[in-house]
Each structure stands twice: as C-alpha cells, then as structure tokens.
Amino acid sequence: MDRLSEEHFVTLEELVGLLETSESTVRRDLDQLESENKLRRVHGGAESLQTLRDEPSNLQKSVKNIQEKRQIVTRALEEIHPNDVIFIDAGTTTALLVDILTDTTVTVVTNSVHHASQLIDKGIRTIIIGGFVKQTTDASVGQATLAQINQLNFDKAFIGMNGVDSAYLTTPDYEEAMVKKAVIENAKECFVLVDSSKFGHISFVKVAEIEKVTLLTSESSSAIFQKIKEKTRVIEV
Predict the structure, then answer these.
(1) In terms of domains, do 221 and 162 share one?
(2) Number of folded domains in the chain?
(3) Which domain range does residue 41 map to?
(4) CB-based contacts of 38: which residues, under 8 Å, 6+ apart?
(5) pLDDT, tens only, 116-173
(6) Which SUPFAM superfamilies does the entry mention (predicted)?
(7) How confident is the model at residue 202, as a pLDDT?
(8) Beta strands in 24-151 (DSSP E)
(9) What are the DSSP calls for the chain, one per residue?
(10) Is the pLDDT higher at 55 or at 62?
C-alpha cells in the first residue's frame, strides 16, 4: 500500500522481489486487499483506486496488458496503406504502433515528441504538433495544439483512450480530451486502440460518442462490449 500511494501502480514481479515471497502468496494478498476495497487488481499487478481525474504516467501504463496491446497494434498496422496521411496520438499503446511502422510512403502527424523522434529516425515523413507538453503523458495540448490540428485532415487517426462505456469515450484530462476530440472530427476514420482494462471504466471528461469511431480491441466478453458492437464498428483481435 505504501508503494501504491507513491507510484499508483505496482507489478506482481516487483512485489515478489520486495516482499521476498512467492507469486501465489502475493496474488492472494492482492485479492484480499481488493476485497477490502483498498486497491484494484489489474493484469500483471495492482493499481490504486484513482479518482475520475487521476491518470497514471506513461511509465506506469507501459507495463500493463503489454501482450494485448501488441496484438492490437499489429492489427492496426493492417489499416495503414501506402501514401496515407495518419495521426498517431501520444500514449503507450500508440507507441507500440510507432515501433512497428515501417512504411516510408506515409505521412504521420503526432502530438508526441517521443513518437516524432522515433518516426524521423525511421525515415518516415513526420509533422509534429506543438503546444504545451504534459510530462506525465508526453502529449502536446492547449490552444496552439488545437489550432494546428483543426487546419489538417487525416485519412486515418489512431488514438488511445482511458475509458470506454456503452455510450462515450472518456479521459481524465480536459485538454487532452479536446485534442482527441479534434482529431476524431478531422479524420476520415478514427481507430481507438483499447485493451480490455478500459471497458466499463469512466473518466472525468467525455471525448466523443462511441458511434464516431472504430474500436480496435482485444475485448470480447463483457456485457458493455456487446452493447458497443450494436452501435459502432469493432475490430477484434
């Protein structure tokens, strides 16, 4: 609990090392703490019970559901065609898409400094959107960011999201929400890349109605997912 109060997320592997005990013991203890409503169990570890406005850092998010995210971006890559102009927003899932993108005929617009640097190293034509950069998520936000995005059109956009319910896409930060909203409105098609942990989760700010995007996900079993499939296009991996 001390570690969660500091970092908001802790991995199972980290706890085994810190406590010098077995993985099965740690799992049982985490289950007990969750039953006492002291934390939330997630794949690979546990996270603090955050408020609607809280958001984990990229470092915390990068180790969660990594295998699911890799499957999602591998499928997302199939939607990118030669000479496309695409937007890739800041985030850990979209970072994995940047990792595997090799087509040098595409043009990529991004609001992530790290994404832009990697894309340039690959020889991919890159346009970086400026603005105030949030250190926790590596995202350019603010009026300058919105003004630039609203001057552009994209064949496709690939964005992440913190929460997905049967009606709305949501995220904790108002300024990031406005950027994602602008991207959705200026793209012919927007793909929201989300792993199973995002379904049923609701954050502070509504970004867009679920009908406005295509969901690309590894989720397939929840009741919310079945409702979403009735409202919008869903690509399952």
Answers:
(1) yes
(2) 2
(3) 1-48
(4) 1, 49
(5) 999 999 999 999 999 999 888 889 999 999 999 999 999 999 999 999 988 999 998 8
(6) NagB/RpiA/CoA transferase-like (SSF100950), Winged helix' DNA-binding domain (SSF46785)
(7) 80
(8) 40-42, 45-47, 85-88, 107-110, 125-128, 132-134, 139-141
(9) -HHHHHHSEEEHHHHHHHHTS-HHHHHHHHHHHHHTTS-EEETTEEE----TT----HHHHHTSSHHHHHHHHHHHHTT--TT-EEEE-SSHHHHHHHHH---TTSEEEES-HHHHHHHHHTT-EEEE--SEEETTTTEEESHHHHHHHTT--EEEEEE--SEE-SSEEEES-HHHHHHHHHHHHTEEEEEEEE-GGGBT---SEEEEEGGGSEEEES--SSHHHHHHHTTS-EEE-
(10) 55
pLDDT above 60 (res 177): yes
* Same domain membership, residue 128 and residue 37: no
CB 119 within 8 A of CB 94: no
Question: Distance (Å, rounded) from C-alpha 46 to C-alpha 30?
Answer: 7
Residue with the bigger pLDDT between 110 and 218: it is 110
Residue corresponding to tokens 């956009």: 157
